[in-house]
Amino acid sequence: MADINRDWDRDWGSKLEIEKVDEYTWRIPRQGPMRVDGIVFADDRLMRAIRGDKSLQQVANVACLPGIVKHSVAMPDIHWGYGFPIGGVAAFDPEEGVISPGGVGYDINCGVRLLATNLQYQEVKDRMADFVPRLFANIPTGVGSSRKDLKLQRGEMARVAGRGAHWAVERGFGLAEDLNFIEEGGCLPGADFDLVSDRAFERGRDQLGTIGSGNHFVEMGYVDEIYDPALADRIGLRRGGLTVIIHTGSRAFGYQICDDSLRAMQQAASRYGIYLPDRQLCCAPVGSEEGKRYLGAMTCGANFAFANRQVITHWVRETVEQVWGLTPRRHGIRVIYDVCHNIAKFETHRVDGQERTVVVHRKGATRSFPAGHPQVPEAYREVGQPVLVPGDMGRYSYVLVGHPESPDYTFASSCHGAGRVMSRTQARKVTRNRHIVKELKEKGIHVTAASRATIDEEFPEAYKDVAEVVDVVHGAKLAIKVARLRPVGVIKG
Known about the structure:
With 493 residues, the chain is of the alpha+beta class. 31% of the residues lie in helices and 25% in strands. Strands 7, 8, 9, 11, 15, 16, 18 and 19 form an 8-stranded mixed β-sheet that branches. Strands 1-2-3-4-5-13-12 form a 7-stranded mixed β-sheet, sandwiched between helices. The chain has a two-stranded antiparallel ribbon with strand order 6-10.
């Protein structure tokens, strides 16, 4: 897989061109060692912010990889990441293309699950201050958080890696119908636990049912705005209805799988003669031994994450029953949908008018299949797959559905969140003399976290306004706005 661009001037990125196509679309024309164009979705305001880091260069870098199909794509929540930008999407031909851990990220299958309830927020508003600390006590959070009641032996861990959310339901963590509303049914095929290192097993064996640190959270909220009543009704969202968002992934288990794979991939890229404009884009041909090994191990991490969100769902239900004394029939907590936003998968898409199997990398991006797609749950088949876009803990989150006119070159993808505009170090400096918990409480948002540092790093202004991001997604026909959710209670690491 030798590359004619190997000797290209390494400074080509300093001359990077970008041009505006329409109100929501920008193009990085193929230049230097790029094999395809780059496409970025943003309005003028967001583009000014995007230009502030190196993420546009990363879009161009991804476009240099062998076998890339159509375009290197970036969503409006794009920001700098490891190798691929966060908010990046790229698809590769299975025969000519590559698989790259940087296109998935360290937190394999970090994703979002939305739960709806039969409760109206006004019914429980006065009890939220007592509920949030109890939820925090029941769901471990923070760096290295673990469970004392769920430490798995190697054989059981292998079953989690192979069965995903199905393992959790089979062990009593949730309901069989939950599985109908999870991307891929909560279990990706092809997991090979023999490819997982002992270090990864040891790091993850007691972390099932935990949130972790950083921007991960469990958030109580309510539906405060409905944009499309018919779609909201079909999905099961009511104005004022109490909701829960779970945002977490594969924890240290997935992190270690990624870390282990990077070392092997760095050697593979050199061995196969793959030109890398950035070493963090290390990769291997999809069909190579290294590519297959990464996919087998990555799938273990992805399935662990599905199981993790399923177990947390169980603890949310139990906490509602314990604290508020409500029966399952009364609270009616149900899964609206669960989506991955750090994943690489074989999918079928229309490319140049023909159906093709490609390996889609989504890093900080969400699948958004439209109405009629066979992989959309039957209950949503006529409206499209729910797309879940959490914002920051002080403003709002959104629910959308896949758009039937979404451009083919996005590979049915949408944004995954607001996107950071401030580093964690910057955020801590800005909030040094502020009391973020108190500020949020004055807005009616109860926050409990493992440390003040986490809250300061994740304060609302550290992120783009997710409303602007979603407006671009809606305007560009990547997904259709359905409803907006307001936070009222958050637990964080």
